[in-house]
Write a structure and sequence with these properties.
The structure holds 2 protein chains of 2 kinds.
Chain A lengths: L2 E5 L3 H5 L8 E5 L2 E5 L1 H5 L8 H7 L4 E3 L3 H16 L6 E4 L2 E5 L1 H7 L2 H12 L8 E5 L2 H10 L4 E2 L5 H6 L9 H9 L5 H5 L3 H8 L1 H10 L9 E2 L5 E11 L2 H21 L2 E12 L4 E7 L6 H16 L13 E13 L13 H17 L5 E5 L5 H4 E5 L24 E13 L2 E2 L14 E3 L6 E14 L8 E11 L9 E9 L2 E8 L1
Parallel strand pairs in A: 2-4, 5-12, 7-8
Antiparallel strand pairs in A: 1-6, 1-7, 2-3, 5-6, 9-13, 10-13, 11-12, 11-13, 14-15, 16-17, 16-18, 16-22, 18-19, 19-20, 20-21, 21-22
Chain B lengths: L1 H15 L5 H5 L3 H4 L4 H4 L12 E5 L4 H14 L4 E4 L6 H6 L7 E4 L6 H11 L2 E4 L7 H14 L2 E5 L9 H7 L6 E13 L4 E14 L8 E5 L20
Helix pairs in contact in B: 7-8
Classes of the chains: A alpha+beta, B alpha/beta.
């Protein structure tokens, strides 16, 4: 497979109608995001503070990022390119890629194809483009960036071509810092490492990067084209005349789209967005994700494409004559989503990440011995089965949950008193006791907390004897458990009956837990 | 210069209007995740908790089980919950009620800084269950409610386990602001226990809802505590084989 990239340097600057020789910078949140070669010559750098950049280049024009304008301006270029090649994948405004094999055969050679493309890009109003061809998407992109007027990496020498690029080209900060400390500075050095070691030491993100560095299209993604069409569509009634209305509909549609993919355990790496107007005018475009699409990026792509289409301003452009009545999202290329856990956080959602960050903060406020998650293990008494693990600490090994003879059966008490409450339980002849043989001395009639009101006992069951750890004199404990249903007579009959799980140890009664 | 930067930000703003602000995008599906279990859903409009609202669980036998039922469905849908100030709850019973324990965090004893902690929790998670350890000034209560509204999380107040808090006046002093909804367990029925034999096999509570935001005429429902919410299947019958 050969890939061809068309790249427009500093697209957001040229899209805004500025010449690259002028001193122009795109500034977001007080920092330089992009700068023109003109500004670069004056000493402006990406990431520089706005004030510093301005002092380096006083006459520098400052732009705010405007993704919508970028997308709108890119539309005529895509139209021009699709007149030469049929299938074009747009990564972002200013960069698109295509599988070059078919067009190469058609035009009779790669240089002929490049010539063909350069021809259509020579139109006035189109900023200078760079074209690169290589064996992988990543290499093609880099080839486009290096060659001033197109760079053809010969078949099979992509790895050599990549070997001299610095490792920072991969744009994985963690990996670059670490590798540089290990003495690995170029992609070539990185590519020479054994794949297995890279995967075990740096994880799957680095394994993907390793494939890129070797001039391969990342294989671990197990990318494939879906067998049956994975598509969702929505009909807009009334038709959407404006981009924002259509985008609003796209929001719901993209959620639906993501749900469909998640149900099948897939993630979308390439997406086709189709829209149709009432007058049967159509737009269809393929978008490629940097990693995978999520709901928000899909909406963004829809917005880009539709604003480019509805607000077409170029000369040869055909502007649709009616509102959009059909919107369709098609998964053009999917990957098993389990393979795509690129970040350290794996499959965690945004909500999870926010909760974890926030709870870390609360741990800072309270100290680590105040905030817990619960783990359920095995144990005989209800209190034994729950283990509280301080937030952020690895879980301990627990007793296995099954089987525990002598366990109190379900339903479980909702409240387990940390310190059991002492009670008195009486039958007609005074306090009830449990004999050594496990029998009660009388039928319990009433109970009370010390100093509390007497409660009538309506029903009871037990005693259930537990002889725990009889082999250890220290921790040996012999207890009897009861379930007791009681009513507070003073409050009235009502339905306010309570069931307690009670414990008798050496003829003292305690409430261990309450069914609440 | 600062003014200039601010102006630049203002000009930047419209292009970012496409992407919803951070807090909003996190909660875009909040009403979806705050759905209640089928029995409780009948009591409130839409069958879900309102993001940014407040709820009180009144005292009464069964209120802990009621709390578990209330949070079980949102947790199953991916929300996070924190239960603060209830040191005695049994997490295992919560699991049996269908609570996804991996997204439930417990703060048994928040100490004196509970207001501050509650505010931080409202930033972090969708459901914050608080048993106020001592009374709260009206200004503080309003500030917490405003925070909940802003972050679109739900504040759930409980009366704790003390039996004397059934007194409305005491509850009012502890939390001075009227909540959107009050769920109270008004009746409980327990089955399986006899005089001297049997064992508890099932329980049910009656839940009554009151407050500003109710779903028309239905104001109470029955919760079967020995049934996982929505399963419709009772627990397998309990035999005494587990008992020695």
């Amino acid at each position: 497979m050969r890939f061809l990239s068309v790249w427009f340097p500093n697209w957001s600057i040229t899209a805004a109608g500025h010449c690259l020789d002028d001193s122009v910078a795109v500034v977001e949140s007080g920092r330089v995001l992009h700068c023109s070669p003109g500004a670069y010559r004056d000493g402006v750098r990406i990431g520089q503070r706005r004030r510093e950049a301005k002092s380096n280049s006083p006459e520098m024009a400052v732009l705010a990022p405007n993704p919508q304008l970028d997308a709108t301006q890119f539309e005529p270029i895509i139209a021009a390119l699709t007149s030469v090649v049929a299938r074009l994948e747009v990564t972002e405004p200013g960069l698109c890629t295509l599988a070059a094999d078919g067009p190469t055969r058609y035009y009779g050679g790669e240089s002929a194809l490049v010539h063909e493309l350069q021809e259509v890009l020579c139109e006035p109003g189109i900023p200078p483009a760079r074209i690169g061809i290589a064996d992988s998407r990543f290499a093609a992109k880099l080839a486009a960036r290096t060659g001033s007027d197109g760079h053809l990496v010969p078949v099979g020498s992509t790895k050599d071509f990549l070997s001299n690029f610095p490792i920072t080209t991969l744009e994985l900060d963690e990996l670059s810092t670490l590798s540089q400390r290990l003495g690995i500075h170029t992609l070539g050095q990185f590519a020479d490492l054994p794949t297995r070691s890279v995967l075990s030491r740096f994880g799957s993100a680095a394994a993907t990067a390793h494939a890129l560095a070797r001039g391969l299209n990342p294989e671990p993604l197990a990318v494939h084209q879906p067998n049956d069409e994975l598509a969702v569509s929505v009909e807009l009634d009334p038709p959407a005349e404006r981009v924002d209305i259509a985008t609003f509909a796209a929001k719901q549609l993209s959620t639906q789209f993501m749900e469909m993919l998640v149900r099948r355990g897939l993630a979308c790496t390439q997406l086709r967005i189709e829209a149709q107007t009432e007058h049967a005018e159509e737009t269809s475009r393929i978008w490629r994700a940097t990693t995978v699409f999520d709901s928000d990026t899909v909406v963004e792509r829809v917005r880009w494409q539709l604003s480019g289409w509805l607000e077409a301003s170029g000369a040869g452009e055909i502007k649709p004559t009616a509102g959009i009545c059909l919107l369709r999202l098609v998964a053009d290329e999917v990957a098993g989503s389990a393979d795509l856990q690129i970040s350290l956080w794996g499959e965690m959602s945004q909500v999870d990440r926010r909760a974890i960050r926030g709870l870390d903060r609360v741990r800072g406020l309270l100290g680590s011995s105040a905030i817990f998650t619960a783990l359920i293990g095995g144990g005989r008494s209800p209190a034994d089965r729950v283990t509280l693990v301080p937030w952020g600490q690895p879980p301990p090994t627990l007793d296995p949950p099954m089987p525990w003879p002598g366990q109190v059966p379900n339903p479980l008490p909702a409240v387990v008193h940390n310190t059991p409450l002492p009670i008195e339980v009486h039958c007609d002849d005074g306090p009830v006791q449990v004999t050594v043989r496990g029998e009660v001395t009388g039928s319990p009639q009433r109970l009370r907390l010390p100093g509390g009101r007497w409660r009538r006992i309506d029903a009871w069951a037990g005693p259930w004897l537990v002889d725990e750890q009889w082999w250890e004199p220290e921790s040996h404990c012999r207890v009897a458990r009861f379930q007791i249903l009681s009513t507070d007579v003073a409050v009235g009959e009502g339905n306010q009956q309570t069931v307690h799980l009670c414990l008798v140890q050496q003829n003292a009664w305690w409430i261990e837990a309450t069914y609440d | 210069m600062a003014l200039q930067t601010a102006r630049a930000d203002v000009t930047t703003a419209p292009s970012h209007a496409t992407a919803p602000s951070h807090a909003q995008s996190l909660r875009s599906d909040a009403t979806d995740t705050l759905q209640l279990s089928p029995e409780l859903a009948e009591l409130v409009p839409g069958g879900c908790l309102r993001p940014g609202g407040s709820i009180r669980i009144g005292a009464g036998v069964g209120h802990t089980s009621l709390l578990f039922r209330l949070i079980s469905e949102p947790l199953a849908r991916g929300a996070w919950a924190v239960i603060m100030g209830l040191p005695d709850i049994n997490a295992h019973a919560a699991v049996e009620c269908g609570v996804a324990i991996e997204r439930l965090v417990l703060i048994p004893n928040p100490g004196t800084s509970w207001l501050e902690v509650t505010a931080a929790l409202l930033d972090a998670v969708d459901l914050v269950v608080v048993n106020p350890p001592h009374s709260c000034r009206p200004t503080d209560a309003r500030r917490l409610l405003a925070r909940a509204r802003q972050r679109r999380s739900v504040l759930i107040l409980t009366a704790g386990n003390s039996s004397d808090s059934s007194n409305e006046a005491i509850t009012r002093r502890v939390w001075p602001e009227p909540p959107d909804l009050v769920f109270t367990a008004t009746g409980s029925r327990w089955q399986g226990l006899e005089r001297g034999h049997g064992c508890l096999t099932s329980g049910a509570i009656t839940v009554t809802a009151s407050g500003r935001r109710l779903n028309g005429p239905i104001s109470s429902c029955n919760l079967n505590l020995s049934q996982k919410p929505g399963s419709g299947q009772p627990f397998p019958p309990v035999t005494a084989t587990g008992i020695r």
